[in-house]
Amino acid sequence: MRLVLVGPPGAGKGTQAAVLSEKLGVPHISTGDLFRANIGNSTPLGQKAKSYMDAGELVPDEVTNEMVRDRLSDEDAAQGFLLDGYPRNTSQAEVLTGILGEKHLELTAVVQFDVPEEELVKRMLARGRSDDTEDVIRRRLAVYHEETEPILGYYQDKVIKIDALGSIEEITGRALEALRSHQ
C-alpha cells in the first residue's frame, strides 16, 4: 500500500501515521525524519538542507524531492510506504507521480484527515507550546490551505476523507475501514 497522509496542522497525522504504518506493515516516511537523518549523517542532501535551514530559509522542493526519491528506493519501501508531510504542494505531488511512474507504480490512496478549524486551534493551543499562539496557529492553517490543500484536487480520484474527531483508535478504525473499501 502506497499512501500519502494529508491534513492541516493539529489533525493528528503524525499519530495516525505511526499507528497505520504498524498496522499496514509499511514504513512511515516523514519529511522531518528525512531531514534529521540526512543532516545527522552529513549526506550531501543533508548538508544542502542544513545550509538553507541555518540561514532561516525553507528547504527548496528540489532537495526535499531528492531525499524522498532516495528514501523510496530503500528496500523496506518496495512493498509500500506511508508519506507524512510530503508532498506539501502540487509541484511536489507531480514529482512524486514521476518517481512512482519510473517504477511503474502509483499511489494507492491519499488519506485526508478532516477536522473543523476551531477544533484544530483548540488542539494546538492545548499542546501548550510557547510558539503556538492563536495568531501563529491561524497563520500555519492559512499556509496549509494555500499551499497543501490544493494537492487534494491534484489527487481527487484517490482521496479518502476521514473524520479525524474522536479517539486515536476510532480514527484509525475509520481509516483502515475506508482503505479496505477503497481497494
From TrEMBL:
It is an enzyme of class 2 (transferase). This is Adenylate kinase. GO terms for cellular component: cytoplasm. It is found in: Cytoplasm. Monomer. The gene is adk. It comes from Saccharopolyspora flava. HAMAP family: Adenylate_kinase_Adk (MF_00235). GO terms for molecular function: AMP kinase activity; ATP binding. Consists of three domains, a large central CORE domain and two small peripheral domains, NMPbind and LID, which undergo movements during catalysis. The LID domain closes over the site of phosphoryl transfer upon ATP binding. Assembling and dissambling the active center during each catalytic cycle provides an effective means to prevent ATP hydrolysis. InterPro entries: Adenyl_kin_sub, Adenylat/UMP-CMP_kin, Adenylat_kinase_CS, P-loop_NTPase. GO terms for biological process: AMP salvage. Residues 30-59 are annotated as: NMP. NCBIfam families: adk, PRK00279.1-3, PRK14527.1, PRK14531.1. The lineage of its organism: Bacteria, Bacillati, Actinomycetota, Actinomycetes, Pseudonocardiales.
